[in-house]
Design a protein that fits this description.
With about 300 residues, the chain is mostly beta strands. It has a single domain, classed as Jelly Rolls, CATH 2.60.120. The protein contains 2 helices and 19 strands. Strands 2, 4, 5, 6, 7, 10, 15, 16, 17 and 19 form a 10-stranded mixed beta sheet that branches. Strands 1, 3, 8, 9, 11, 12, 13, 14 and 18 form a 9-stranded mixed beta sheet that branches. About 35% of the residues are buried. The longest helix has 16 residues.
Length: about 300
């Protein structure tokens, strides 16, 4: 048994020194539901010049999408045939472009590489990632059954090999052998939306406990607005001891458990179909457009500055 303990501990040390990056997860969740007040205030963006200041926060990264092309120094544009959750889209670069001062992610019913729909997805992997901050995205969402737009944060240096070894060790009843540095997976969904629920917004943290239990904390916002008709601001404040979700500066959910402490990068996408939204039907009109006015990332100003 001591030989086994030494072997497992040695394997963890080797993986901690040279881990490998990775991808995604969901399960077992605590939820909260909030009802929006009758009146919602639209946010007016400062599209010219600098982004507006926010007390207690310092702007560290942004894109106002005022140019002619998406900035390749800031964004990766995905091309990928298959995605998880039985989604139907093929992500292709020509569904991502700038128009009228916005980033547009277009979704179409279109035969492409064996798939029947195309859509757009961008991310900041290896171009911008951060630990903690306020993430603010002003967007107008696509409508209809099967449309699944999202803004989310994903770990920059996910260690698949270590995660698998830790999971196997937990399953074998040897959780005590895992070192205290435990790089469990986390994902922060700033905003998710299902096109057939035009007034409902979801915000979720997916995480693992220290002992390797998969959990999630999720909030549901039932508003009086149709989020496909106009622009709204979706924001997340991630701090060392808490995460808070907002729609148009209204708090929709918060949690103090499972907070990640490693760099995450940003993903903006529109999925088509899948297990959660269901697939498009005869009522879904194509093409659909997901317009993003700006993305702004702030860091908390240290006390005394």
């Amino acid at each position: 048994m001591r030989a086994l303990s030494r072997a497992v501990a040695l394997a963890f040390v080797v993986l901690l020194v040279g881990g490998t990056p990775s991808a995604q997860g969901k399960e077992g969740k605590s939820t909260s539901v909030r009802k929006a007040p009758a009146a919602a205030t639209n946010h007016v963006a400062a599209k010219e010049g600098k982004a507006p200041t926010r007390p207690g926060w310092r702007l560290v990264w942004s894109d106002e999408f005022n140019g002619k092309r998406l900035d390749p120094a800031k964004w990766n544009v995905l091309i990928r045939e298959q995605s998880k959750h039985n989604e139907l889209q093929y992500y292709v670069p020509d569904e991502v472009y700038l128009e009228n001062g916005c980033l547009r992610l277009r979704s179409q019913k279109r035969e492409y590489g064996g798939q029947h729909y195309t859509s757009g997805r961008v991310d900041t992997s290896h171009k911008f990632s951060t630990t903690y901050g306020r993430f603010e995205i002003r967007g107008k969402l696509p409508a209809g059954k099967g449309m699944w737009p999202a803004y989310w944060l994903y770990p920059q240096n996910r260690d698949w090999a270590m995660e698998r070894l830790m999971a196997e060790t937990v399953a074998a009843g040897n959780e005590v052998l895992i070192p205290e540095e435990r790089p469990w997976y986390s994902e922060i969904d700033i905003m998710e939306f299902l096109g057939h629920e035009p007034n409902v917004i979801y915000g979720t943290l997916h995480y693992y406990t220290f002992k390797g239990e998969r959990k999630s904390s999720s909030g549901t916002w039932r508003g009086d607005d149709d989020y496909t008709k106009d622009f709204h601001v979706y924001a997340l404040e991630w701090e060392p001891d808490a995460i808070r979700w907002y729609v148009d500066d209204k708090l929709i959910h918060s949690t103090v458990v499972g907070i990640p402490h490693t760099p995450h990068y940003l993903i903006l996408n529109t999925a088509v179909g899948g297990q959660w939204p269901g697939n498009p039907d005869d009522t879904t009109v194509f093409p659909q457009f997901h317009d993003i006015d700006y993305v702004r990332v702030y860091q908390r100003v240290p006390t005394g500055e």
